[in-house]
Amino acid sequence: MTDPRVERLADLLVDYSLALGEGQVVRIDSLDAGAPLVLAVYRSALRARALPYTNVGLSGLGETLLQHGSEDQLTYLSPIQWEEIEQLDALVTIWSESNTRALSRVEPDRHAAYIAAQRKLSNRRWERISSGEMSWCGTLFPTNAHAQEAEMSLAEYEDFVFAACHVQEEDPAAHWRSVSTELSTRATELGSARELRIVGPDTDLRLGVADRTWLAADGRYNMPDGEVFTSPVETDTAGEIRYTFPALYHGREVVDVRLRFEAGRVVQAEASRGNEYLQSLLEMDAGARVLGEVAFGLNYEIDRFTRNILFDEKIGGTMHLALGSGFPQAGGQNTSGLHWDMICDLRDDGEVYADGELIWKAGRFLAEPALDVVESGVGG
Amino acid sequence: MASRLERLAGVLVDYSTRVKAGDLVCIDTGPAAAPLVRELWRRVLEAGGHPHLRLDVEGAQELLLREGSDAQLDWVSPLRRSEVERADVRIAIEADVNTRANTSVDPERQARAERAREPLRTIHFGRASAGDLRAVVTLYPTEAAAQDADMSLAEYEDFVYHAGLLDRDDPVAEWEELGRGYARLAEWLGHRREIRVVGDGTDLTLGVEGRTWVPCGGRENFPDGEVFTGPVETKVDGAIRFSYPASYAGRRVSGVELEFRQGEVVRAQADEGEMFLREMLALDDGARHVGEFSFGMNEAVTEFTGHTLFDEKIGGTVHLALGASYPESGGKVRSALHWDLVCDLRTGSEVYADDELVYRDGRFVDGVL
What we know:
heterodimer, A: alpha+beta, 11 helices, disordered C terminus, B: alpha+beta, eight-stranded antiparallel beta sheet, five-stranded parallel beta sheet, 27% strand, globular
């Protein structure tokens, strides 16, 4: 029998995240392990009178290409892929790995060449997404591989994922609509702040955010979701921060990262493990030492670190500050090949001040957002 | 020693479709065929091609047929269209996990979905005839296909790989040799004007003058073993009784008897599935005509297993197809349908070519070639 939570997640993606309508062409991308959710999304899309089709990969093929492909084969983009992108009204990406470490032994240069080629396609896709020509949502179907990465059983991990998406409830869309209202209000309020100060263990960091736009991540582009974020002023970050969770980049782990900023740039960096990798990433380009994002994680169903950025950056009570590229739609101007989300746990004794006023303590905003209509069911 | 699966992948890539550097190779199948897909992927990369996978999701087609609106049934995805237009090679692998999943689907809706895909079929066959597309259809043995054949999976695997001569040392050499024999037969048949098939409940005459007989030695079907043509559209007369049940789109029809006059079906009946047979005959104008007539020649396939890919190749049978003909044979029938029905001629049967007895009890008479 199909897990009713899978069906509700599918309905949520189709009706809320993508808001699919009659005649809209939607492609469902996944690996074979995500088949149950692929089928459920396909069904929901049919019921929405959209025109769905599936694009399902098979685990193991990627590494065969990366290991055995010639340069020409690695960087090949087929006309089929190009033609498809132009015809999509919506795209669902379902992450569902059978082995999250399958590419660990692939030569980094070959992997980089492959990613660089694929980026041409994804750039075009982002152009269409940014301009509103198509919608996109990324989500995850729980597999043993992802559960293993999170150090959970599959059953535990399913509970974790579906709770984070709020699909164990009867009407998840109602929940996400109320989240959307709350986060938008919060974003508007933060928009009036000129400076944020984050205080915690080994952390006292000031960030200029004047005239930047705060955005609500409310389940349209990611499911689960739950953050408000902006790009800080590039020259106005000063002080130090210690990241409590390991920072992951392309599957590699850097532990206990400490950064010191002056005039917007990292001037000192160290880590207890992976320090060399940290230093090499900071040297990637000029923008790699500058923050591209500051965000509040506000999904309180996500209460632990699971080594997957889709969830980790939304842990309720954390903040994340990403080194590298900023978001133009938030007013960010930093450009870089890097966008490295690092997460700082503020749930025990963190404090955040906006223009000198304490707004957040021990992982929560002090004041309820000033909603016109107060809705229930937010948070946990 | 290479496994039978590795040999199959090798034959499909190196012999059937002759993949070369730069070819865009679409592999079209379901998840049950994953072990074969992985072999093919490696093999295509070795040959310098660019493998591209389209993997069906189990249950999606059924959902479309059961729940889809007319607009959804009529729609063809941009992916499918691009694949048909752009691929240099297509390797389609049947790998059903339940061959009867669509049995209770409304035949009219099924027919509608078939019609929507006809333009793709036209492009596919057009490009194949022009030499722009090399396409092969094969089967990966599953429990479902074994079940249809009344076999265990292990028995069915033996049957499938034996039919492909993959239990021989050099399958490619064997297929090349068979192909040369089929080519000689096709050449000889090409000079005949009329074929008459006589057997139990069958006396059918087909005009074949000016048509091309096509030898099938494992390029477009694998396994293979037939020599076919497209009979003259107005010159099929008489009656035929098909010995074996025939499946189409997941439905089974058995005891089919057809009567033809001037190329068209004028009477049709079946012991089982007669309504579905009538639905299919009414699909479009071409569905009542014979698009293909063929001799099954694969001596390694001796028994009926309920799957057309194998049944139509049984050595000692003939089959005809209702619906679309293959342009390379000179046939002109156009239809969304192409339904092969098989008639066993291994006992009590004769075939005449221009009134000369050329075939008896499943074999061409010695010295006729």
